[in-house]
Design a protein that fits this description.
The protein is an alpha+beta fold and 798 residues long. Helix content is 36%, strand content 20%. The chain has 26 helices and 32 strands. The chain is globular.
Length: 798
């Protein structure tokens, strides 16, 4: 019998369609396994995408064999910049492009033979779905978590829209690669900072990798310090500063404000105004990353000074683009003796450098900033204290004097939530001259996008929706007077921040999720997706879940019990992309080698959590392995189990199970190869294998290569699906070897090996070893006999 993978895979796909293997029953527990749903791009799936989807399907099938009923849904994250930019490039409407792309994605996903619940499919652009995205926004608006603010935001000149901080990577737009600038715009914001402490603290209880938890913790960026008020000399104004180094306050010799700081226009003197305005404009054209990484420090003196509250020294006030308006208070006290950036700035502008911490308590001129712990100097009554002690005492002193307070700061900023584009969820509020900003009535949801011919971004800072008067002009839900709809749309993240809650029943038109569905399925048991979403999507999803918990929609605060982030598949050392010309399509590989071969190779190429290099030749080895497996089973003549067969079977089950549970799926595949070779040798020696051993092997293989496993299961005489089996169990006692192999040495040099019973005594083993090498001992005098238990015998002889 030949291994005809095409016929076998078609046969079993048809059978699974007719008789689904994932069914509910009273004695099955529910298990929710979820992929991070894809944006349906026009490029379709490549083998890098397959890796994550195969991984989650293997895990889902593994859970089926453990008696679970699986929810393993799929949907489409189809709103947002990528979809709209693609549609613009193809000169079609985003809805049309999205529908075509989804159709292609579904075709490719079905070739994986993943057991998706297609009856639970969702699409974030479906009004029946985004009705609830808008409902969540309304609830946030009611609770004061959604608010408007005019502020300098990241602006992509190519996408012609604002970007959240998280969407800017290395100073460039994460979507198109254009250098990001700053633009002052009216924005909708979500107050995610209200949840900073909970988002940070609740990381401890998550079954997530330390790497991802650290990435989230670093992004939230909690720091302890003090808020200090500096009076402006000659004006009735104060500058508030947050510092993590209050111990260095005596060494502050100047201050720097962000160019966007609200006090700049009030503090600048007339003779400095033109210079300052030019600097502010130039800074607005640079990205935050560029500003932070520029090697040369630039700045302009405002013409005024602040007063150091501890020693009353005057501190000249500058603006510089290395200070950002959205971190801390947008103003810093500068201590050049103990901060590298401040040191560079002070050197350039010839400002005083006053050391207040010394390694040994002696004051010396500094060639560079001293940033270590030490002893306080030039610090009045705090001289002689360790700087670590001063960090605690000085904030208390500031509070006593009423010039500052101990405080906690977060790097996390409120979420810029509006986009000046067409293809997104309309924000469900109206602007009324009489009532202000008013949320629409819940019964009027969803507020749908109008049909338009032109949806290209305007570039002016206004959405294309602003020009559609018949859609914009409406009535106020509160006073019934004339009002205008909000024309900014939500970001792509809006629909993906809660989608996992909708899958259990996407057709529920009465509520976001019913209590019954929530208790049956949520939170998600296993969430699988790329590490690139470790900060953005996961942080937003956790924020949304905590908010929905607070308003009583769900009864849990964390959405994903267990998280697994798979690494990328690279080609020629780079991430696969159409622009690099290194994309490998799965379509031809499925045609030439079959779905099972590709599934297994995707998991064999390396540890699933790490990036792995694609090698076109590698799949041939996996395909040869499946042919070997096919021959092992189809040519077998069943025999009674020998002790060796039984022992090998239980060792196989043990090793595969341990590797599965630790998610070491590449070593699971290598384990299958190793044990198939071993079983082939045993089969040759014994004239066949026992049926129980073959059943165990096929059951273990089934999650990885389901088609060939079902076929082999049928060939050995089974009439039901292999997925109606239980995952094979091992018996530790039956795994034990009867014999062990002992190395025999003469004076420390290898002389041979001998097999002995596991429970043999040391004297017996030494005698057996001497018998095994007796010829080599002829003519020698034995001086000493050494036995290292279970490992070797060393005969010292002359």
């Amino acid at each position: 019998m030949q291994y005809n993978y095409n016929a076998i895979e078609q046969k079993w796909r048809k059978k699974w369609d007719e008789n689904p293997i994932n069914t509910a029953s009273a004695n099955k527990k529910n298990y929710y396994c979820l992929d991070m749903f894809p944006y349906p791009s026009g490029n379709g799936l490549h083998v890098g995408h397959w890796r994550g989807y195969v991984l989650s399907d293997v895990w889902s099938r593994y859970q089926i064999l453990h008696g679970h009923h699986i929810l393993h849904p799929m949907g489409w994250d189809a709103f947002g910049l990528p979809a709209e930019n693609y549609a613009i490039s193809k000169k079609v409407h985003p809805a049309v492009a999205t529908e075509e792309n989804i159709s292609n994605f579904k075709r490719q996903l079905q070739e994986i033979s993943a057991i998706y619940n297609w009856d639970k499919e969702i699409n974030t652009t479906d009004p029946n779905y985004y009705k609830w995205t808008q409902w969540i926004f309304l609830k946030m608006f009611e609770k004061g978590l959604a608010y408007e603010k005019e502020m300098p935001i990241n602006w992509c000149p190519s996408c012609k829209t604002g970007l959240a901080n998280e969407e800017v990577k290395d100073g460039e737009c994460d979507r198109c690669g254009e250098v990001v600038t700053k633009k002052n715009l009216r924005q909708w914001m979500l107050k995610i900072t209200e949840y900073a402490e909970r988002l940070l603290n609740d990381l401890d209880g998550l079954d997530w990798s330390d790497k991802v938890k650290k990435m989230q913790s670093d992004w939230i960026g909690k720091s302890y310090g003090a808020e200090i008020d500096f009076k402006v000399d000659g004006l009735d104004e104060e500058i508030k500063v947050f510092t993590t180094r209050p111990d260095t306050l005596f060494g502050s010799t100047f201050m720097v404000l962000a160019p966007e700081h609200e006090l700049v226009s009030k503090l600048v003197t007339d003779d400095k105004k033109a210079e300052v305005e030019k600097y502010v404009f130039d800074a607005s054209t640079k990205s935050s990353v560029d500003r932070m990484t520029d090697k040369e420090k630039t700045g302009v003196f405002l013409g005024r000074s602040a007063v150091n509250p501890l020693n009353n020294e005057l501190l000249p006030i500058y603006i510089s683009d290395y200070v950002l308006a959205d971190y801390g208070t947008g103003a810093i006290m500068c201590v050049p003796a103990h901060d590298e950036r401040d040191f560079e700035f002070a050197k350039k502008f010839e400002l005083p450098i006053v050391p207040v911490i010394s390694k040994d308590g002696e004051v010396a001129e500094l060639e560079e900033a001293f940033t270590e712990e030490g002893v306080m100097v030039n610090s009045g009554e705090f001289d002689g204290l360790k700087s670590s002690e001063a960090k605690v005492k000085i904030p208390s002193y500031l509070e006593e004097k009423g010039i500052g307070k101990k405080t906690v700061n977060y790097k996390l900023r409120d979420w810029v939530f509006s986009r000046q584009r067409y293809w997104g969820e309309p924000i469900p509020v109206v602007h009324c001259k009489k009532c202000g900003v008013v949320g629409v009535k819940e019964e009027d949801l969803p507020i749908t996008l109008p049909e338009v011919e032109s949806y290209e971004p305007t570039g002016t800072g206004e959405s294309p929706l602003a020009g559609i008067e018949e859609w914009v002009n409406t009535s106020c839900p509160k006073c019934d007077g004339p009002a205008k709809r909000e024309t900014n749309t939500m970001p792509q993240w809006a629909g993906s921040s809660w989608y996992f809650l909708r899958y259990p029943n996407p057709h529920n038109d009465k509520e976001l999720i019913s209590q019954e569905d929530m208790k049956n399925w949520l939170p998600v048991d296993m969430y699988v997706g790329g590490i690139e979403h470790a900060v953005l999507h996961l942080l937003y999803a956790r924020f949304y879940t905590k908010f929905l918990y607070d308003i009583g929609v769900v009864d849990f605060e964390e959405p994903f019990k267990r998280l697994f982030n798979q690494g990328m598949v690279t080609k020629d050392g780079a991430k696969m992309s159409k622009s690099k010309g290194n994309v490998v399509s799965p379509d031809e590989l499925v045609q030439n080698y079959g779905c099972d071969s590709l599934r297994m190779y995707e998991l064999f190429i390396g540890p699933p959590e790490l990036d792995s290099e694609w090698d076109d030749r590698g799949i041939e080895g996996v395909h040869r392995f499946l042919n070997k497996l096919w021959r092992l089973v189809t040519t077998n003549s069943p025999v009674e189990a020998t002790k060796e067969m039984e022992r090998t079977r239980h060792q196989l089950i043990y090793n595969i199970t341990q590797r599965m549970e630790s998610f070491s799926l590449n070593t699971v595949v290598s384990g299958f190869m190793e044990y198939t070779n071993k079983l082939t040798d045993i089969q040759k020696q014994a004239g066949g294998l026992d049926t129980e051993t073959l059943k165990a092997l096929i059951t273990l293989l089934a999650p990885f290569v389901p088609h060939i496993s079902e076929e082999l299961w049928e060939i050995i005489g089974e009439t039901k699906s292999v997925f109606e089996q239980e995952w094979s169990k091992y018996d530790a006692d039956k795994m034990k070897e009867d014999e062990i192999e002992i190395v025999v040495q003469i004076s420390g040099k290898m002389a041979g090996k001998v097999k002995v019973a596991v429970d043999a005594e040391g004297d017996f083993i030494i005698n057996a070893a001497k018998d095994a090498i007796s010829a080599k001992l002829e003519g020698k005098t034995i001086i000493k006999e050494i036995y290292v238990k279970g490992r070797l015998v060393n005969i010292v002889a002359k």
